[in-house]
Design brief:
single chain, 3 helices, mainly alpha
């Protein structure tokens, strides 16, 4: 679906950039979304928010089991 008519940016392009970790400013620089008339800004930001990684992946550390005292 086209989100930004002025720059012909679709939701797939926004989602791909968001999943790659692009900030909204990066997205605007790369695609031009929400930089001309601004009518798509809220829709573009909504798609970006839904598709960006919510939290960085945590590195898990395995803890060695210590035997209980006898």
């Amino acid at each position: 679906m086209i989100v930004c008519v002025c720059r012909r940016v679709n939701d797939k392009a926004i989602a791909q950039a968001a999943r790659a970790g692009a900030s909204f400013d990066d997205l605007q620089t790369e695609t031009g979304v929400a930089t001309q008339c601004g009518q798509c800004a809220s829709s573009a930001r909504a798609v970006w928010m839904q598709c960006r990684p919510s939290q960085p992946t945590a590195h898990l550390q395995l803890q060695a089991k210590i035997p209980a005292p006898a």
